[in-house]
Amino acid sequence: VFIILTTAHDPLTVSIGFSILAGITTWSAIPALSEIFVKAGLKGMDLSKKTKHIIPESMGMVAGLIYLVTMFMFIPFPFMKWFTASNDGDLQELKLLTFPNLKLAELLSALLSIQSMVFLGFADDVLDIRWRFKMPLPAIASIPLLMVYWVHLGVTHIVVPIPLRPILGQLIDLGALYYVYMGMVAIFCTHSINIMAGINGVEVGQSLVIACSIAINDMIFLQSVSSGAPAIETHLFSLYFILPFIGVSLGLMIHNWYPSKVFIGDTYCYFAGMTFAVVGILAHYSKTLLLFFIPQIFNFLLSAPQLFRLVPCPRHRVPRYNRQTNLMEPSRVVLDEEDDLEIEFSSTRQESKRALGRSASSVSLSSTEAGATTQDSNESHRESDNPQPSTTTTSSFFQDFRPLKNSKLKRSGWYCVKILEALGLTHVRYDTKTGNRPLEMTNLTILNLILVKAGPMSERNLTISVMVVQFCCSLVAFFIRHRLVAFVYDV
Ligand code: UD1
Ligand code: MG
């Protein structure tokens, strides 16, 4: 690495050297800092292990800080030719005239936005900020970036796909709406990684697949574009940000992989999401970026009924760990209480007790907004996920689609449950007496869906499955971006 750094003449080679250094530093710093984090109260309980042990949390802070230090040290390199210009008077003047001030502003504003998100993520880990407050913050953190975008690029039009051109013309100028869209991209990228989380290695795993896809996409462009084209600059810029990110993520992944020795915390999720948003916005390929987020978009749409409280959303939606089998199973959320009559009619005393226990646990499950954020509430969620009783029946979609009057679910929630069930995206357990009053359903996340479809599996295999899904979606994204695109755009 030292040889690369001392002999390299181009910034990309320096960036590769810095990224390797950043990865090694992250890998070696984490074990050294683990105890300090635990002493400072930055720790969490691994929910999916036989013995509940506490491990350091927010280790994304270490990765984020090393990333920022690396990037700060890298700042002079893309501008090296202006530094090394002779002190000759004419050249000095030329330097002042040609120095790309806006490029430097882009680099600095991008780092400011990423740094703000590392800070916010850490605050979230420490203070457990409520969703309604933390939701818009990435858009605010991206304002410095959008400001530089406005001054430098200012492109707010989108190219209309060929089939729609007779109606809409070749270009549509979105004006201010384009900035709103970019703010939304920042919000989406950060939060979507944070909600596809909760099992060892899954957050870093998905981020690494996305980051590698971005890097490969940049390299494809660098190979195909003729030298001197503006696209070269933007894709190089993207690589300068992504390569050190891959470095620190690999260093972190070694410790976060199953069985995790450290948790990455919200700090890493926000840091990763903002890094992706930054390169997507400044390198002007936010649509391609979103193609690499297909699993996260799907997970967000699937989660929407819970996120927008159409159906209850527990504090933790991660799959349930079964101590007996050592496998992960889909976790469930209580939608309604078991019918009292059913408890009365239960043939054995033991069955009544089980039904009552499940009713009581539903209170803690739907208390996210009431601030149920402690590990105790995680535990009550765990306890409620008892294996299904043998009396379970499943109503068919067409059996009765009218919401029941005595159901605790809102009408909109009822329709959501029925539609998601019909699409095979959740498994619903119904009241045995009426046969069509939904009592429980599997939580609406891609992790639970994989388990509903493929059956129980180990935590490690579930993380690998998510990474395989992410990888396959990246292949689809490449196919759309580099093959199908010719049918809808002039390339
Ligand atoms: C988000 C999800 C929540 C999920 C949680 C898991 C939404 C709306 N929120 O909440 O459903 O349960 O992430 O991170 O979808 N943990 C493990 N093993 C791991 C990683 C985390 O057990 O490999 C547990 C630990 O107890 C850790 C906690 O998850 O302390 C971290 O949760 P946190 O990041 O604070 O949850 P949110 O991001 O708020
Ligand atoms: Mg989180």
From TrEMBL:
Pathway(s) it belongs to: Protein modification; protein glycosylation
Please indicate which superkingdom the organism of origin belongs to: Eukaryota
Q: Which GO terms describe its cellular component?
A: endoplasmic reticulum membrane
- Name where it mostly resides: endoplasmic reticulum
Topology versus the membrane? Multi-pass membrane protein
**According to its UniProt record, which reaction does this protein catalyse?**
a di-trans,poly-cis-dolichyl phosphate + UDP-N-acetyl-alpha-D-glucosamine = an N-acetyl-alpha-D-glucosaminyl-diphospho-di-trans,poly-cis-dolichol + UMP
Claim: Chloroplast is one of the keywords in the record: no
Q: Which UniProt keywords apply?
A: Endoplasmic reticulum, Glycosyltransferase, Magnesium, Membrane, Metal-binding, Transferase, Transmembrane, Transmembrane helix
* Sequence segments annotated as region (Disordered): 352-397
Q: Provide ranges: composition bias, Polar residues.
A: 368-377
Could you tell me the Gene Ontology terms of the biological process aspect for this record? dolichol-linked oligosaccharide biosynthetic process
- This entry's Enzyme Commission designation comes to 2.7.8.15
Cofactors: Mg(2+)
Which locations, inside or outside the cell, does it occupy? Endoplasmic reticulum membrane
MF terms from GO for this chain are: glycosyltransferase activity; metal ion binding; UDP-N-acetylglucosamine-dolichyl-phosphate N-acetylglucosaminephosphotransferase activity
Spans traversing the lipid bilayer:
16-38, 59-79, 139-164, 176-196, 208-225, 237-255, 267-285, 291-311
Alphabetized InterPro entries for the sequence: Glycosyl_transferase_4, GPT
In which family does this protein belong, per the annotation? Belongs to the glycosyltransferase 4 family.
Record's function text:
UDP-N-acetylglucosamine--dolichyl-phosphate N-acetylglucosaminephosphotransferase that operates in the biosynthetic pathway of dolichol-linked oligosaccharides, the glycan precursors employed in protein asparagine (N)-glycosylation. The assembly of dolichol-linked oligosaccharides begins on the cytosolic side of the endoplasmic reticulum membrane and finishes in its lumen. The sequential addition of sugars to dolichol pyrophosphate produces dolichol-linked oligosaccharides containing fourteen sugars, including two GlcNAcs, nine mannoses and three glucoses.
Protein name as annotated? UDP-N-acetylglucosamine--dolichyl-phosphate N-acetylglucosaminephosphotransferase
Q: Species name for this entry?
A: Linnemannia schmuckeri
